[in-house]
Design a protein that fits this description.
Elements lengths: L1 H8 E4 L4 E4 L1 H32 L9 E2 L3 E4 L2 E4 L4 H4 L19 H14 L2 H5 L15 E10 L16 H9 L5 H6 L11 H12 L4 E10 L6 E10 L3 E9 L2 E11 L4 E10 L6 E9 L8 E9 L2 E10 L8 E17 L4 E22 L8 E17 L14 E18 L9 E18 L2 E13 L5 E5 L2 E5 L1
Length: 491
């Protein structure tokens, strides 16, 4: 029996005097090995994401867990798992807290974040309000101090305070980036030392800071003050966006534009944008646009923009200052805008086109609103309020086409006075990858009912109009609108 097996799978080499495997046997053996290693690789690829998702928390004296917060001497990491999955952490062997994040490469961290989003329960994520649950046990306590700590902009999370760049590209970008100055971040605070902690106000403050064009994420953490059970210290963790960007658009073979912008000039949060236009069909060939903006003037949440455009068919100067109702907690909001333009435009008519008409005008636009909060904030952070607003708009035409009573309304002098009042109910829920990639997004939901009345003059004729509007943003990301007696549903 043994001799038959040897003859089948081996042969005798007379030159060397050694028994060697048969070639057919070697091919079979290699195929079996290949299938074995392939199956082993598939099993490992399936186990590694699950192992990294469940994570491990060491049970020792150096780590304390308070409301899903892991606090170690050098880092603060938030447990990103839902409570149902967090309950199964003890089933796995202990590993250091850093194993919760794949730190081997940028690709590994992004893959880990994506897997966390995919494996977590969709309904729980979709309905999670913008309320910082980690601050709930400290609601109403005295705020002794607020510390601002900046996290590296390449960290996978704003809570990964121990991250340091590990590639030459990240190190180069970090060295050339001037981080947002702490005093600029402090200007946007709505909670201050010496006050009692309001968890809803703190969560709203996080959202407003995240809304800044130079901030990717912001999180408040609480630290209990030893020996003072009625006091708490807050830590605000912020993560910057990389401020430098550029764009290119080609309209025709000999026409297009290219732009470059910087959203955090010298760490002060100021925005600078320049655009170069070219069009070989017209003279002059090149044109440009310059815009300078300040998102949050002295912490008032007023933003301003200065813009100048000079190209073959446009010469525009514009200045704008605005404070929107970014939250129902803002009592007052308003805006003012001045624009002076000299344009050349084609006027398209039903049967003909008037080419390159000179159009020169000056416009003024002002509005002011008042919000009155109604009721208290519910557990999901939803707030309600009554509002009233008024707007004045004036447009003076200095040069343009010949007009008449029923033609070319846009080229006629006009003055408008508008009023509106209504009721708004609004909340926000955390999500991501809806508007942008890898950024915490605050998606609004709620409804608005608005009544409006306007009076205006065009060519010395008085015009009046009324408008009523009801819109609702559903949590299924659909928009329903009731306007002028007609329902609109957008999915």
């Amino acid at each position: 029996m043994m001799n038959s097996i040897i003859k089948k799978y081996y042969f005798y080499n007379r030159e060397t005097g050694v028994m060697l495997p048969n070639m057919l046997f070697m091919k079979l053996l290699n195929r079996v090995r290949f299938r074995f290693y392939r199956m082993l690789a598939i099993i490992l690829l399936c186990l590694i994401p699950i192992h990294s998702l469940t994570g491990q928390i060491p049970e020792n004296d150096t780590t304390s867990i308070i409301d899903k917060i892991i606090r170690t001497p050098d880092t603060l990491i938030r447990n990103p798992l839902p409570s149902r999955q967090a309950g199964r952490l003890s089933e796995w062997p202990s590993k250091p807290p850093d194993s919760l994040i794949l730190r081997s490469s940028r690709f590994g961290r992004e893959l880990n974040n994506l897997l966390l989003k995919l494996y977590s329960d969709r309904e729980e994520r979709k309905k999670m309000p913008v309320v910082n649950a980690n601050l709930t046990p400290y609601d109403g306590k005295f705020i002794r101090n607020i510390e601002i700590q900046r996290v590296n902009m390449f960290a996978a999370s704003a809570l990964d305070t121990a991250y340091s760049p590990n590639t030459w590209l990240e190190q180069a970008a970090t060295s050339m980036h001037i981080g947002t100055r702490k005093k600029i971040i402090a200007r946007g605070l709505l909670v201050h030392p010496g006050e009692h902690l309001d968890v809803f106000l703190a969560a709203e403050n996080e959202r407003l800071i995240r809304d800044m064009p130079y901030i990717m994420d912001a999180r408040f953490l609480a630290r209990q003050v030893p020996g003072e059970p009625d006091s708490v210290d807050l830590v605000l963790l912020t993560k910057d966006l990389f401020p430098l960007g550029f764009g290119l658009e080609i309209g025709r073979a000999n026409a297009g534009n290219a732009g470059i912008w910087y959203d955090n000039t010298f760490g002060y949060g100021h925005q600078l944008m320049t655009t170069l236009f070219w069009d070989g069909k017209y003279f002059p060939l090149f044109g440009y646009r310059v815009m300078y903006g300040i998102p949050n003037i002295t912490g008032s949440y007023f933003s301003s923009e200065l813009e100048y455009i000079n190209r073959w068919n446009t010469m525009t100067s514009r200045i704008r200052v605005v404070r929107d109702f970014k939250t129902i907690g803002f009592k007052y909001a308003g805006a003012g805008e001045f624009e002076s333009s000299e344009l050349k435009r084609d006027i398209i008519m039903p049967d003909s086109t008037i080419p390159l008409v000179n159009w020169r005008f000056t416009s003024y636009d002002f509005w002011l609103g008042r919000m009155i909060a109604v009721g208290n904030v519910n557990p999901k952070g939803v707030r309600s309020g009554l509002f009233i607003s008024g707007r004045f708009y004036n447009k003076e035409i200095h040069e343009g086409p010949e007009t008449s009573e029923h033609f070319f309304y846009n080229f006629q002098n006009k003055t408008q006075l508008l009023f509106s009042a209504g009721y708004a109910r609004q909340g926000f829920q955390k999500d991501n990858m809806i508007y942008t990639f890898d950024r915490t997004e605050d998606v609004p939901f709620g409804y608005l009912f608005e009544l409006g009345h306007g009076v205006g003059t065009v060519r010395s004729q008085t015009l009046r109009g009324n408008k009523w509007l009801l819109w609702k943003i559903l949590q299924e990301s659909r928009l329903s609108v009731w306007q002028d007696g007609v329902w609109y549903l957008c999915s």
